[in-house]
Amino acid sequence: MPVLTSLQSNTVSLVNNYDTWMFDCDGGSWHDDQLTDGAFDVLCLLRHQKKTIVFVTNNAMKSRRHYKAKFDKLGIEAYMDEIYGSAYASTVYLSSVIKFSKEKKVYVIRMSGLEEELKDEGIQYLGGTDSSDCTLAPFFLADFVLDEDVAAVLCGYDSNITYTKLSKAFQYLTRNLGCQFLVTNEDTTYPNAYGVLPGGGALSAPLRYALGKDPLCIGKPSTIMLDCIRVKSSRVYLPNL
Amino acid sequence: MPVLTSLQSNTVSLVNNYDTWMFDCDGGSWHDDQLTDGAFDVLCLLRHQKKTIVFVTNNAMKSRRHYKAKFDKLGIEAYMDEIYGSAYASTVYLSSVIKFSKEKKVYVIRMSGLEEELKDEGIQYLGGTDSSDCTLAPFFLADFVLDEDVAAVLCGYDSNITYTKLSKAFQYLTRNLGCQFLVTNEDTTYPNAYGVLPGGGALSAPLRYALGKDPLCIGKPSTIMLDCIRVKSSRVYLPNL
């Protein structure tokens, strides 16, 4: 088998010792459109040995469908049910871990990737890419109608962050009793090919600061991501941490 | 003197003991358009006794001119040089406390009140109400041209907060060596007649979070506000804290 001969013997020995393998995506398995050196060979070896593979990423901008397309483009064998982005993990957390009521709604500060995942899981949501929230028109609290069914606020990277979104989220978190404060990830920065920008975690910081409390984080390094993988993947054996 | 007879004798005694009197504005001297009970009588007494009066406010949305008009409307005798908003104090801090170079520029995340004060002090600035920053169009880091003359970022309450502004501010703070990170105030919330909204301090939180460091705060309760009053008002005697 050519794959094995191209790998160090200690790599092969390591592979033999574990049944489930988890890989980071952007900046881990690849950088922009370039596969990481050795990634292809290691993944081929794991497939050959029938290992369970999970791809995890804190990037909640893209849905699993988007990631599947990226894997295909890079020539990596990957399946939808192996991909856990923080957008998908957030919806799994709501639907399968805490059994979020189908009658309740989530107020979203996020981009379309998250909305796609919420739709797929049948979770009602407000905000996100709604044009009445993605606006720089003044927010008048006197005109705001509180939706009492909003029982969670979920924030992530949102390049369309507005004061209207922050203000509405703040109303739900302070006026709807028990409303949960969730973030897809706590990444302070968003490194990319041209430099570094404020990350998804930074964009929920106004709410942390105004509320004086931290949200529950779904993405890495939170173990909630692992809980979501456990719930959805019967093939995955993950020891409790 | 009718003023004195309407006041408690212990108030009169207190007034006699101090030369300089500082008053908060919104929520202190008045609530919305309603003067606080007793405020008018106390201010008349202080004027009659030739005391030095200073009005301080963390509200950086309005310039001193705006505040002077508010005092006039409420029928309170007040003069421009007695009014210290955090917008004005921030410009005094730059121009008179740290002697900010006229060749350098400030990148502003704020509303027009601050820009008016910066103009009055002859300080160059970028951002603020500039339409190329007040936009929800995507921010492309590859297209961003860093202005190497930006030596400070000054943030406050800005209902037109955008990812473009946060991204540009982050570039200046991380790429221009020694660029100062200043906030007009650290108010977590902005209480108003209809409820509570995220405050000016909350809107600089993405930068605090992404940078992993706190800014220098100009407004109350920072003593920098007092330094600015000392610099500008020779009549004011303020003991060192």
UniProtKB/TrEMBL annotation, chains A, B:
Give a single Pfam family match: Hydrolase_6
| Top EC class of this enzyme | hydrolase
Q: What Gene Ontology terms describe where this protein resides (cellular component)?
A: cytoplasm
Reaction equation(s) it catalyzes: 4-nitrophenyl phosphate + H2O = 4-nitrophenol + phosphate + H(+)
Statement: the UniProt record of this protein carries the keyword tRNA processing: no
Which GO molecular function annotations are given, in alphabetical order? alkaline phosphatase activity; phosphoglycolate phosphatase activity
* EC number of the protein: 3.1.3.41
Q: Which UniProt keywords apply?
A: Hydrolase
Look up keyword Hydrolase and say if it applies.
yes
What name goes with this protein?
4-nitrophenylphosphatase
Organism name? Guyanagaster necrorhizus
The taxonomy runs: Eukaryota, Fungi, Dikarya, Basidiomycota, Agaricomycotina
